[in-house]
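Need a sequence for this fold. Nothing fancy.
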C-alpha cells in the first residue's frame, strides 16, 4: 500500500511539473513512515481476528475493514488537515511538501483499505487452490 501511495505522488509531480529538490524528494521517507501506520493497524486487527476465529477470509477481511476503516480514515484525515496548513507557507517547496504529503497519505489510506484486502484475498485463493 505504501509503494502505491508514494509512486502516485511521483506521477503527480511529473504532471504538475513539481521540481525535485531537497524538500520534495524527502516527502517519500516521511510518507512511508506515516503511511505504514494504516497498514499496521489493519494487519494487526486482521491477525487478531484470524487467531480468535479462523473462518472464511472474505468474512474476516470484511469485518476488519468495518472495524478499522473509520479510525484509519479519521486519523488520515486529521494528519492531512495538518499537512494542508503547509499550503499557506510563503516558501514554495514547503507548499509542495504539504500537498505531496497530503496526497501520499490519502493514497496510502485508500490502498490500505482497498488494494491490500484485495491482494490478501487473491493470495489466499491462489494459495488454497494450488497448495492444498
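Here you go.
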Amino acid at each position: 500500500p505504501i509503494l502505491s501511495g508514494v509512486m502516485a505522488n511521483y506521477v503527480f509531480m511529473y504532471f504538475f511539473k513539481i521540481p525535485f529538490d531537497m524538500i520534495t524528494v524527502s516527502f517519500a521517507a516521511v510518507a512511508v513512515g506515516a503511511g505504514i501506520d494504516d497498514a499496521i493497524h489493519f494487519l494487526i486487527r486482521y491477525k487478531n481476528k484470524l487467531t480468535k476465529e479462523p473462518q472464511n477470509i472474505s468474512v474476516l477481511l470484511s469485518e476488519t475493514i468495518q472495524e478499522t476503516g473509520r479510525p484509519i480514515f479519521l486519523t488520515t484525515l486529521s494528519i492531512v488537515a495538518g499537512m494542508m496548513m503547509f499550503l499557506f507557507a510563503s516558501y514554495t517547496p514547503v507548499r509542495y511538501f504539504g500537498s505531496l504529503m497530503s496526497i501520499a497519505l490519502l493514497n496510502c489510506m485508500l490502498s490500505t483499505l482497498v488494494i491490500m484486502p484485495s491482494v490478501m484475498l487473491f493470495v489466499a485463493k491462489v494459495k488454497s487452490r494450488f497448495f492444498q
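For context: The longest helix spans residues 92-130.
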